[in-house]
Amino acid sequence: MNLKKSRNIRSSSSCLDGIGRQDGESKRKRKMAEITQALNATPVNVATLRRMAISEGGLITDEIRCKVWPRLLNVPVENIPEKLDEVNRENDKDYNQVLLDVQRSLRRFPPGMPDEQRMGLQEELIDIILRVLQNNPQLHYYQGYHDIVVTFLLVLGERLATALVEKLSTHHLRDFMDPTMDNTKHILNYLMPIIERVNPEVYECMQQAEVGTIFALSWLITWFGHVLSDFRHVVRLYDFFLACHPLMPIYFAAVIVLYREEEVLECECDMAMMHHLLSQIPQDLPYETLISRAGDLFVQFPPSELAKGVTQECTQQTAASTFTDFGLASAQQRPDTVLRHRRREQQQQQKNGNAVDPQRGTVAVFRPGARRLVRLAVMGITVALGAAALAVVNSALEWAPKLDLQFL
Amino acid sequence: MAYAYLFKYIIIGDTGVGKSCLLLQFTDKRFQPVHDLTIGVEFGARMITIDGKQIKLQIWDTAGQESFRSITRSYYRGAAGALLVYDITRRDTFNHLTTWLEDARQHSNSNMVIMLIGNKSDLESRREVKKEEGEAFAREHGLIFMETSAKTASNVEEAFINTAKEIYEKIQEGVFDINNEANGIKIGPQHAATNSTLAGGQGGQQAGGGCC
């Protein structure tokens, strides 16, 4: 299929991602071997895959992503039907909107891709979106959803993308797919408390300007797919997000703001100026550093911690808000042998009150008392995040209480 | 650059009618045939002159899709002018004007000047909404009306500037309380110096500010 060409281009270039050239090559080879080993293990070693997806360079090539992303989302590839359902475009309530948006999404395709090939992919993109929406009438299409779907399409091809996007839509993206963005606003409310804890000065400056959090809206609901122009960066981030808690994009957003500390502090204390500054995302961000920082922040200030620290009226606390960040929401567990196995291990470790076996990557090193800013070894981060993400999640808000802060 | 007044605008209307393109044409004098869609709100600014006075327009461009309504609504607050845009080649975007108008009136201050814009006037062959229909709608609801083309730039300047003129007149007539920023009007630093009521808060920082 014509998709292949673009995939090859990507695969060969994405290996440079974050890894220096010389000793990068051997590191990369070692990492690829480790991933292969984890994939071939029985049961598949999902914890290691998660760690690989988070750690420097992510999953390296799109070929590997095709194998690992389904594992991260717990989608059994063997059960995906060979032939996709026909999509009925006539009478589809979303068709016109999706068509309009997909027609405008030229920037999401690799520059230099022949028009014909791009148009074919755009048709597939429409079909994936409509198929998922038709199968899940509770989901509502939002502009920006297609920015996420296109990433999956370009990496995985139509068949795999459909299965993974469906899973993602009913879980990580679920809150964005309500008829209104009210729940999304709640999720955005996690942004400022993170910034406050790390850099009160930046926080204060933003509060004074009354900038709100809408500048980060497109970042959150497209997983940065809408704002980053280099596809390699986008997929690298997707590796990270797929391996982590659904609120991780918020932590990453916070890290970007914090990284721009100087600009924020120098900015005119005016809502419009500040919004303008923050919404223009620099394209040359040090992604690997920021990813690792976001992981650090998550471990130090997990969502439950953020919710606690802020005075607020919690209008609604879902059952899962009692979920301890690195524990497992057992009720959400799906009958998957791998996960069941992992969970038993996890519970055993928690019972023992201690984390063990860093080799396997199942340690939970988080101590609730620790408030200082520590640099955690990538291993530690990976482990904690991995544990958090191991449970089959429903949606971000089921994992965390709503923060009802009015920042705007 | 120093300004006498700052007016806050909001651009609203269905998705794909050309809101961002109108803004881009006005602020940058260019046209992007395939403009990426707006998620949430974006922002642009430009200086204009009315009655010999420098006026800074601060324009908030909003996402058109229904799901974003609860987010974009909060930007009506504190807007002195609104451009309500439809696409003359898409009847449905015209049909939704009433909903937009109700929404705008409900969430904005009552003096907000609303300009109705039928965009894409260059696409005459695909026209679905007659100019007269736009005029009639505007007359009925007390709006100013114009057909524009973000592509050819036809009437784009006029749309933004005429709205500003209307706001300016309202200021002259004393309709707007210019000391209340919630009305979407701010007195610039040069005026503020002679206007002690505005000295508090951020006034001092304004002098060096204003990048646009």
Automatic annotation (TrEMBL), chain A:
Organism phylogeny: Eukaryota, Metazoa, Chordata, Craniata, Vertebrata
Q: Which GO terms describe its cellular component?
A: endoplasmic reticulum membrane
Query: What protein am I looking at?
Result: TBC1 domain family member 20
Region feature (Disordered): 1-29, 337-361
PANTHER family noted in UniProt: TBC1 DOMAIN FAMILY MEMBER 20, TBC1 DOMAIN FAMILY MEMBER 20/GTPASE
What organism is the protein native to?
Silurus meridionalis
**Gene Ontology process terms (BP):** endoplasmic reticulum to Golgi vesicle-mediated transport; Golgi organization; vesicle organization
* Residue stretches spanning the membrane: 211-228, 240-259, 376-397
Q: Where in the cell is it found?
A: Membrane
Q: Does the keyword Repressor apply?
A: no
The record, for PROSITE patterns, names: TBC_RABGAP
Q: Which SUPFAM superfamilies match?
A: Ypt/Rab-GAP domain of gyp1p
Instruction: Please name one Pfam family that this protein belongs to.
Output: RabGAP-TBC
Annotated membrane topology is:
Multi-pass membrane protein
Give one GO term, molecular function aspect.
Answer: GTPase activator activity
Main location as per UniProt: membrane
The chain positions of domain Rab-GAP TBC read 59-245
Keyword list (alphabetical) reads:
GTPase activation, Membrane, Transmembrane, Transmembrane helix
Automatic annotation (TrEMBL), chain B:
Its BP terms in the Gene Ontology are: protein transport; vesicle-mediated transport
Enumerate the UniProt keywords alphabetically.
ER-Golgi transport, Golgi apparatus, GTP-binding, Lipoprotein, Membrane, Nucleotide-binding, Prenylation, Protein transport, Transport
**InterPro entries according to UniProt:** P-loop_NTPase (IPR027417), Rab_GTPases_membrane_traffic (IPR050209), Small_GTP-bd (IPR005225), Small_GTPase (IPR001806)
What the entry lists under Pfam families is as follows: Ras
A GO term, aspect molecular function: GTPase activity
Cellular component aspect of the GO annotation? acrosomal vesicle; endoplasmic reticulum membrane; Golgi membrane
* Primary location recorded for the protein, binned into one broad class: cytoplasm
Q: Where are the transmembrane segments?
A: none
**Highest taxon of the source?**
Eukaryota
| Similarity comment | Belongs to the small GTPase superfamily. Rab family.
- NCBIfam families the record matches: small_GTP
PANTHER family with a match to the protein in the record: DRAB11-RELATED (PTHR47979)
**The protein's name:** Ras-related protein Rab-2A
